[in-house]
Amino acid sequence: MVPLGWIGGVVGLILATTISLYANSLVANLHEFGGKRHIRYRDLSGFIYGKKAYALTWGLQYANLFMINVGYIILAGSALKAVYVLFRDDNDMKLPYFIALAGLACGVFAICIPHLSALRIWLAFSTFFSLVYIVVGFTLALKDAALAVSYALFLQLLLLILSSPDHAFSIGVNAPPRDYNIPGPKVGKIFTTIGAAANLVFAFNTGMLPEIQATVKPPVVQNMMKALYFQFTVGVLPMYAVTFMGYWAYGSDTSAYLLNNVNGPIWVKTFANISAFLQTVIALHIFASPMYEYLDTRFGIKGSALAMRNLSFRILVRGGYLAVTSLVSALLPFLGDFMSLTGAVSTFPLTFILANHMYLIAKKNQLSFLQKKWYWLNVVLFGCMSAAAAVAALRLIVVHSTTYDVFADL
Predict the structure, then answer these.
(1) Is residue 408 part of a domain?
(2) Considering the entire predicted model, what is its pTM?
(3) Which of 168, 181, 216, 311 could be cross-linked to 160 through a Cys-Cys bond (beta carbons 3.0 to 4.6 Å apart)?
(4) What is the CA radius of gyration of the chain?
(5) Where, by residue number, does the polypeptide cross the bilayer (predicted)?
(6) Which tens digits make up the pLDDT trace of 254-267?
């Protein structure tokens, strides 16, 4: 919202929701293309295009997942730091230290949870932790916004009583409690706006729809569509609520991590930050699982999860993967920039460009001339948006890298 303002932010969120539902519905309708179920996105791509497309899609997916995991570790580290500053103001512990601790926690969790099937009970905890963050963030932001409005109204009333109406009104207008102007110079605003567009599509898409819906019951396509309709209507409401409330309360000062802005009882903020941290650890494991699954299959890891060979493999491989992820997170802890870059280099191609082109190729004999032009228009449009967003995201990372040192304490 900060790089877009009220109008751009609201319109952008609604557009991102709509086009994400549209693009994912194209993939869902190809789930049984050719008379067989495609439970991996790369399987569907390979079936339509061939082996090279399979490898390209695989690479984009894992680049996407790696960037998502980088973002999760930055978020987890930010949550831990937020807990620390609630009780200490010495600033001895920097963000990179907390990112390292978050990476360690994610590594221990990944080693202890060998398969996604062992994650079932943790998904309930993840939902609970998410609700805690949403409820606390929304409630405290609402309280802060209400206090700011009440304070402004009180000052306005007081000035109306003590001085002339014109003078009182001018003072009230010139001292607004929040600033909703888009920050930065004109050129900077252009790049941040483009980057924000990539952030919006990243927020709604993973590039893993077939994998997520792999166990859905028949009729498969109809049930996938029901799930998508629910996700992009009811499912987006909590995100809308927190986003709009946070921006209303804090304006252009809104942090990428909302709990850094809110005011309230220390124990409530501590509980919310710890919940955000724990939810991030669980969510990261879900998005890292395709990588773990591939490596387990590639190296023939079978049998008991507690077998010495299997346990050693998880410690070495999963621990090594998360160590690299944590290092990248600590080197460049710019959460918003990484979200923009991820949206540009992987989410746009996977979710929008590839989905439209696959549908065009798969259904070419059933489409009219105008329909074919429509899908080509989408391919070209989203291709241009992807390129522009990548340039904008890289520029933001370079600018922030020159402003801050590596291992910056943000």
Answers:
(1) no
(2) 0.84
(3) 168
(4) 23
(5) 6-32, 95-114, 121-139, 227-250, 270-295, 315-335, 341-362, 374-398
(6) 888 889 999 999 99
Q: How many Å apart are CA 329 and CA 72, to the nearest integer?
A: 9
Q: What is the CATH number of the domain that holds 301?
A: 1.20.1740.10
- For 404, which DSSP code? S
Share of the chain above pLDDT 70, in %: 90
* d(C-alpha 120, C-alpha 164), whole Å: 65
Helix (H, G, I), strand (E, B) or coil at 164: coil
Amino acid identity of residue 116, one-letter, is L
In the prediction, which pLDDT does 18 show? Answer: 92
> For residues 55, 58, 60 and 64, what is the CA-based torsion angle, rounded to 10 degrees?
-170
Look up residue 119 and give its two tokens: 């994650």
Tens of pLDDT, residues 30-63: 988 888 888 888 899 999 998 888 888 888 888 8
Would you say residue 409 lies in a domain?
no
Hunting for tokens 């500053």 — which residue is that? Answer: 85
Given the structure tokens 């710890």, which residue do they identify?
274
The answer to whether 358 touches 30, Cβ cutoff 8 Å, is yes
At 175-202, the pLDDT tens digits run 345 778 877 777 777 777 877 777 787 7
Query: For residue 312, what are its two tokens?
Result: 């050693």
CA end-to-end distance (rounded Å), the chain: 19
Domain-embedded: residue 249: yes
- Mean pLDDT score across all residues of the chain: 84
Structural domains counted in the chain: 1
Q: What is the DSSP secondary-structure string of 189-207? A: HHHHHHHHHHHHHHHH--S
Could you give the CA distance from residue 7 to residue 19 in angstroms, rounded to a whole number?
18
Give the other-Cβ count within 10 Å of 366's Cβ.
7
Residue 23 maps to a domain: yes
Residue type present at position 168: A
| CA–CA gap between residue 154 and residue 133 (Å, rounded) | 31
For residue range 150-163, what is the model confidence (pLDDT) as tens digits?
A: 766 766 677 677 76
| CA separation for the pair 319, 103 (Å, rounded) | 9
- Whether the CB-CB separation of 210 and 41 falls below 8 Å is answered with yes
